[in-house]
Amino acid sequence: MVIQMYLIGSFTSQEEVSVKRFSSTLREGNVTHHEYIQVGKGRDVGLNQISMFEAKIANGNGEQTLSRDIYRLGHRFDFFRMLSCYFTTVGFYFSTLVTVLTVYVFLYGRLYLVLSGLEQELSQEPAIRDNKPLQVALASQSFVQIGFLMALPMLMEIGLERGFRTALSEFILMQLQLAPVFFTFSLGTKTHYYGRTLLHGGAKYRPTGRGFVVFHAKFAENYRLYSRSHFVKGIEMMILLIVYQICGHTYRSTVAYVLITASLWFMVGTWLFAPFLFNPSGFEWQKIVDDWTDWNKWINNRGGIGVPSEKSWESWWEEEQEHLQYSGKRGIIAEILLALRFFIYQYGLVYHLHVTRKTKSFLVYGASWLVIVLILFVMKTVSVGRRKFSASYQLVFRLIKGLIFLTFVSILVILVTLAHMTIQDIIVCIFIFMPTGWGMLLIAQALRPVVKKAGFWGSVRTLARGYEIVMGLLLFTPVAFLAWFPFVSEFQTRMLFNQAFSRGLQISRILGGHRKDHTSRHKE
């Protein structure tokens, strides 16, 4: 007999079942498991649906990690049952979190070595420079970092079941279908939502829809879904890799840099552009134009009571901070301590400018903070002027903005001519001030009641909007550039869908274009 079940349950019910099973096991009870012949359920087939489902599961595992049931089970189990409990419940997500944290520790450790000058000193030591076994170990490490070692269990399993020729062919087919891109992107989803739940709690149900996904997701929608979980972290790692190359390219070879950072650059590219790669019609030019119009409308709309996050950036920004409002003191302190890592750029890079390379005085670091205060003051002046003069005194407001621009250009020209400031110094200054401003923004969001009482919340919102616009431009520009070439869209369609559906999609585009032309002629 075939039994078909359509499971229409929320994640909350699944979490309650898990808690009941834990309690029954603690009381030395038995939990029976019933097998069914067939279970019918809608599958998540789109990247956005899969990401929301994985976020939901990661939130639930974060709450289970904090529960007293897991704590008691871990203390009362024997070693082998404890391992079974770990790897079948919260262990997978904890290992994922440790993996991403290891990447961060590696990158910030490299940043410390290159900014402090310790890497250059170590590279000149004969005991390290002429150590051939160490170089061989590092080369093998870079080979393992690419990910071949992680694929060996899968190859062995398929090889033992179906033959090693089939295993090798399936492995190559997975690479052509961009499976590493998908699973690396999924790694960021699990890590973000599991880690945030550990710090602040707040697991909730996320509807996925489970529809037949062939529609195009707009750029604003992808930005809302992946801004905090992938885009911000991807840009942070990209800045770390660029700074590591800028400050160490004089004594380090290009081959060594590639061997050290190749896998990390792959991770950065995946976290930044995988949503657009797996988005149907993601590189079609007309879709890109519509996405840009929708993005501008969304980012500039004001929020308010009753305005959904899909219509306004301000409403979405407020929703993204809900976990901080219900977090405890430990979560707020942890958020502030994590935000302090962005000040490392400023303290280390300010002494690597050509202007300040000959001095190590602490006044240089103090002068950098003075520049940051002046930039924030100028932004506050422009914001106040826009509210007071943009409607009634447009000429005065434009004159103020023109004077500010001319002053900035004059200061830049003086620094280039008199202080011999180079283009590399200008790039380094951007990497000094941008992360510092983002760190200040994160601290202000964590201390929201204090900042609101001081009257600076409007300035914080303006600064946050500016950062969102910059991040949106960084993401949108490469996608729009690739959309200029028609073969990119054709390649994406063949990659996402089978040959028959791709051919039908091409025919539907042609017919849709003819119908559009016929309609426009009829109107004329």
Automatic annotation (TrEMBL):
List the GO cellular component terms.
1,3-beta-D-glucan synthase complex; plasma membrane
Q: Which GO terms describe its molecular function?
A: 1,3-beta-D-glucan synthase activity
- All copies of domain Glycosyl transferase, residue ranges: 22-423
The record's annotation in InterPro entries points to:
Glyco_trans_48_dom
Q: Which residues cross the membrane?
A: 85-107, 136-155, 167-188, 254-278, 332-350, 362-379, 399-419, 426-447, 467-488
Sorted UniProt keywords = Membrane, Transmembrane, Transmembrane helix
Which GO terms fall under biological process for this protein? Answer: (1->3)-beta-D-glucan biosynthetic process
Spell out the protein name for this chain.
Answer: Glycosyl transferase 48 domain-containing protein
- Species of origin reads Gossypium armourianum
